[in-house]
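hey can u check if this looks right to u? its 265 residues, i copy pasted from the old doc so theres a chance i mangled smth
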Amino acid sequence: MAAENVSQRFAGKVAIVTGSTANPSIGRACAHRLAQEGASVVINGRDPARLSSAVEDFRSLGFSVTGAPGSMESETATQALAARAVEKFGRIDLVVSTVGGAPYPLSFDALSEAQLLETLRLNTWPALALVRAALAGGLGDGGGAVVMISSGSPHKTTSAMVAYAAAKAALNAMTRTVAADLAPQGVRVNAVSPGLVRTTATRRMWKADDGKAAGSALPTGRLTEAEDIAAAACFLLSDDARQITGVNLDVDGGNHISRGWTPIT
């Protein structure tokens, strides 16, 4: 069961969180934190077996959780996820969109038009479709909050990440615009931008030394954990952030302020 001294900021709220079965992952950490703080949560994953296992893991902790399988690249699956929340819990209050990725880590001169456009689509359209499905399911009825998981890549000029950085910059612009559009309905929309995070998807980048080298390169001196992203996302979803909308919060151990090379000594 959840510890009695844990804040219950989300008691009575219903949340949907995409990409929330892998462990560790940002989506799963967000779902765990929301459920721990009282929300009923609909989690999502592509693999039905892994989704079922994750649901059982959450329920064993005493959390109110159900699952909705499917890839959020499919608008039908996006709509089914929102419908599952309404069917099981009667409403939608909170949304966390984690969909995205860098399927083509290529420099600009090796990247095709199709690869660039696919990267842009992957990192923007599923998030937009999810918000629209949640609105159709009642997200705007009495307010609500959305968090997009973006990236610190737009701060950087990593050659192989040109498509990904452009796509996340587009997501950031979309976040601000949707926030302005939904503010009159009482729905807040914000983004969290991680740097490198200790997840299953990034394991090859930190596994060899358990993240010591990657962490020591950051101003804070340690690798960012999925729970760090979840803490920031849940702050933005909560009433503690009721006057915050349209912002992009960097949660990257200070990576975005890391010093660059200079000839001046």
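The chain has a mean pLDDT of 94.
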